[in-house]
């Protein structure tokens, strides 16, 4: 379903903000590949802080549990390595990413994850009209059950991962597509709610068009690479047709003889230009 892996994370913390002295006490990171959970990283974390009584009451995490946990110097580097360059997601992502960046900075580290997906914002835009978008009530409303104690990192991260899978599945079902690029979810997060429906409709139409073109190219080429000659004489191989992230306009991805890849808007790639008083096509397909 998802075109690239997504890692759903959840932190339990000693406070609401790193800027006010809050530190991480537990983390869970769950990797989604395609349409299933394939791997996870879970650990309590010892940051050398006192656990306020209300945090213990909310999460069940005690001072003794944290004091006996692996140090932050051991856990955070392993967490960053686990996430790698995959997309990062969280329910209220600004909160969790803020703590991830703060703890990494204290260790002189820099996470490498791609775009960030907030499942709260995504649910508000893709499933409007629900009474509450807090994780517990939202999961109950959508028929997703907790397997562990709420407000513990692994249970919350797993429920949020299943929420993301459901939102992705509903998105595919509504638009009859094969997969969802996580970058689309990043873009939906940043849209005004009123613009989401039209944006998704335009995106779905572009994706269907690209899928049809790819099938046509595969059938017509007999699995042979399609090559084009530039009007100046260079030979290039078609990699694929894609969609520009900024405005969903179609682009051509092509490869030169030295292996470097280039992109041009589709309208520019096939446009007619004037050369020495004659109109020629910028790129012409080479027929073998």
From TrEMBL:
GO CC entries: cytosol
Family annotation (InterPro entries): DUF1653-like_dom (IPR023387), DUF1653-like_dom_sf (IPR037135), Ribonucl_H (IPR013520), RNaseH-like_sf (IPR012337), RNaseH_sf (IPR036397)
Domain Exonuclease: 5-173
GO biological process: DNA replication proofreading
One Pfam assignment: RNase_T
Domain of life of the source: Bacteria
GO molecular function terms listed in the Swiss-Prot or TrEMBL record: 3'-5' exonuclease activity; nucleic acid binding
Functional note: DNA polymerase III is a complex, multichain enzyme responsible for most of the replicative synthesis in bacteria. The epsilon subunit contain the editing function and is a proofreading 3'-5' exonuclease.
Known partners and oligomeric status: DNA polymerase III contains a core (composed of alpha, epsilon and theta chains) that associates with a tau subunit. This core dimerizes to form the POLIII' complex. PolIII' associates with the gamma complex (composed of gamma, delta, delta', psi and chi chains) and with the beta chain to form the complete DNA polymerase III complex.
Record's protein name: DUF1653 domain-containing protein
């Amino acid at each position: 379903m998802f075109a690239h892996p997504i890692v759903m994370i959840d932190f339990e913390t000693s406070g609401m903000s790193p800027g006010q002295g809050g530190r991480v006490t537990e983390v869970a990171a769950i990797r989604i590949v395609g349409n299933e959970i394939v791997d996870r990283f879970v650990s309590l974390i010892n940051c050398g802080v006192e656990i306020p009584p209300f945090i213990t009451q909310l999460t069940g995490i005690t001072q003794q549990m944290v004091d006996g946990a692996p140090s932050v110097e051991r856990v955070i580097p392993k967490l960053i390595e686990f996430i790698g360059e995959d997309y990062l997601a969280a329910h209220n992502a600004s909160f969790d990413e803020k703590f991830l960046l703060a703890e990494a900075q204290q260790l002189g580290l820099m996470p490498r994850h791609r775009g960030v997906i907030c499942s709260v914002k995504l649910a508000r835009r893709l499933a409007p009209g629900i009474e509450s978008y807090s994780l517990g009530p939202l999961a109950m409303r959508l028929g997703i059950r907790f397997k562990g104690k709420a407000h513990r990192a692994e249970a919350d991260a797993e429920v949020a991962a299943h929420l993301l899978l459901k939102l992705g599945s509903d998105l595919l079902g509504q638009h009859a597509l094969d997969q969802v690029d996580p970058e689309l979810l990043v873009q939906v997060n940043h849209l005004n709610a009123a613009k989401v429906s039209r944006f998704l409709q335009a995106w779905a139409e572009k994706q269907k068009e690209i899928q049809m073109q790819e099938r046509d190219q595969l059938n017509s080429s007999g699995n042979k690479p399609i090559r084009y000659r530039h009007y100046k004489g260079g030979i290039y191989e078609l990699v694929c047709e894609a969609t520009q992230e900024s405005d969903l306009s179609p682009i051509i991805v092509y490869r030169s003889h030295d292996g470097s890849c280039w992109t041009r808007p589709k309208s520019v790639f096939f446009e007619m230009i004037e050369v020495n008083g004659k109109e020629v096509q910028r790129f012409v397909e080479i027929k073998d």
